[in-house]
Amino acid sequence: MTRHRILGLGLLLVLALMPVLTDLAGQPAFLSLMTRILIYGMAAASLNFVLGFGGMVSFGHAAFFGIGGYVVGFLFFHQTEGTLFLGLIPGTSQLLITLPAAVLVSGLVAALIGTLALRTGGVQFIMITLAFAQMIFFFFVSLKTYGGEDGIIIRRANELPFLNMRDKATFYWVVLAITTLFFLGLRRVVNSSFGAVLDGLRQNERRMAALGVPAFRYKLYAFVLSGMGTGLAGALMANFLRFASPDMLHWTKSGELMVMVILGGVGTLFGPFLGAGAFMVLESVLSSWSEHWPLALGLILLVVVLGTKGGLMALVSRLGGRK
Amino acid sequence: MSVVLSVRGLRKRFGGLVATDDVTLDVAAGEIHALIGPNGAGKSTLVNQLSGELVADAGTIHLMEEDITGLSVAERVARGLGRTFQITSLLDDMTVMQNVGMALQAHEGGNFRIWDAVQKRRSVWERAKAILRDSLLTGREAALVADLSHGEKKQLELLMAMAMAPRIMLLDEPMAGLGHLESQAMIGQLEKLKAQTAILLIEHDMEAVFALADRVSVLVYGRIIAQGSVDEIRSNPAVREAYLGAEDELC
């Protein structure tokens, strides 16, 4: 336990010093790569909460990612236009409002999708979540007011009091702080009473029913929490890219998140972050070599999955001498 | 004695096959009611209707005078119906202690809490420790369920079901696959459980049934063909004919 804590604090220190380090190394691009890794890490960890901890293979998490992003986009759009969203809600560019709004809206959408999709399981669940995500994708493509296929350009990142969010390092630190809180919160939820029941449901739903646990409610709750986490990541990504577009909602994004989870380690706390890191680094390295980089990525994924039996996290634990 | 579980005219049909045909039986408090029958008699179908995994086509099931016919598995469990599985069904990635803890946790409630720490629920873990200390699984608390022997898994099934403090327990072939000594130990335990809960015992092992049962129902092709005390069933010619078939002696 103490060893974990020392490793964690050490990692946090290195991450906190990252803007200084990249500055010294003259690699400012690396800082934006790190920012993206943290954001995607949160999205992947959220997906892993249902996929790894809950045993629900969702192929539609891009929906929540995109909706988180679009909430930021909509609010920015209406603020600059000075109009009301649906004639009711004024726009804003305050991060302290846009982030909770994005989390709330993604949670509501997750509740809606989950209520219907969780009546199935297995392959049907995969296909239904995918179908919902595609519906949402085409819905946003058809919204001409908000740029349709082109999306919404967010000219300035959301503001936080006393901080200059235009500064790349400041933005990175804000994302790092949110990621740290997110990680601690996730760890808490996984080790809670609810987390234990969810783990039980993943292992044996029939047994849990015989213990008087109605699966649906618990799974829906997990799905909503997962959607909220993914929406948070989406909102930060829209701020980072200064852009919210249907790209964030595309089904390939759901696939990428899943690849990150599998690469890092299904059902582990830290694995998805590791997976997101490996995915983003591989993407930037491989895509500079060839436009057919997904082929190489696929091969690497194959080797990792077959070779480590549990993703990079299993590899790390084995190298660390822990079982 | 008060009736805990009361089944009236239960019927279940799969296409042309009548798996449960007008089954009526009562289980009273403090008794072990055994349900026997040859393979394919519809014992498992009946258990699954009683537990709520299958929906009956007709008939009613009452638990403590409350109609539970339309309730889900979990709702029935909440009202005091416990069960064990014929083919053990446990949480394989968890330890013995965690399995018992899960049963207690589920029984205690408060499981939508996402901000507590399950390891710190002392009422759960202290009771789990006490239950295991007095069981045949003492010393195996930290073992993973996947590593348990078949007999140990059967024991754990029983402990988990009892941890829920049920009013009636459906025991689906608790002796199946056990060796002679293990069976003897199980019989001793069920004898003790009688004081705590009513039991409907579905069993193939005649030795166990005749040692334990207060009343016996014989199910053949979905119908109950005889009901009575152990002695009555032993000497019933219809039972000998239908149930034993090729065999010569009832034990």
Task: Please sum up the structure shown.
Chain A is mainly alpha-helical and 323 residues long. Chain A has 13 helices and four strands. Chain A has helices at residues 2-25, 28-53, 62-81, 95-117, 122-141, 168-190, 193-203, 205-210, 215-241, 251-264, 271-289, 293-308, 311-319, and strands spanning 84-85, 89-90, 152-153, 243-244.
Low-confidence runs of chain A (pLDDT<50, min 5 residues)? none
Low-confidence stretches of chain B: none
Outline of chain A, from the CA principal axes?
globular
Radius of gyration of chain B: 19 Å
- Could you tell me the strand content of chain A as a percent range? under 5%
Could you say which overall geometry of chain B the principal axes of the C-alpha atoms support?
A: globular
Mean pLDDT of chain A: 95
Gyration radius of chain A (Cα, Å) is 20 Å
What is the CATH class of one domain in chain B? Alpha Beta
As a percent range, the share of strand residues of chain B is 25-35%
Total number of strands of chain B: 10
Task: Pick out its properties.
heterodimer; A: 323 residues; mainly alpha; two-stranded antiparallel sheet; 4 strands; B: 251 residues; alpha/beta; Rossmann fold; six-stranded mixed sheet
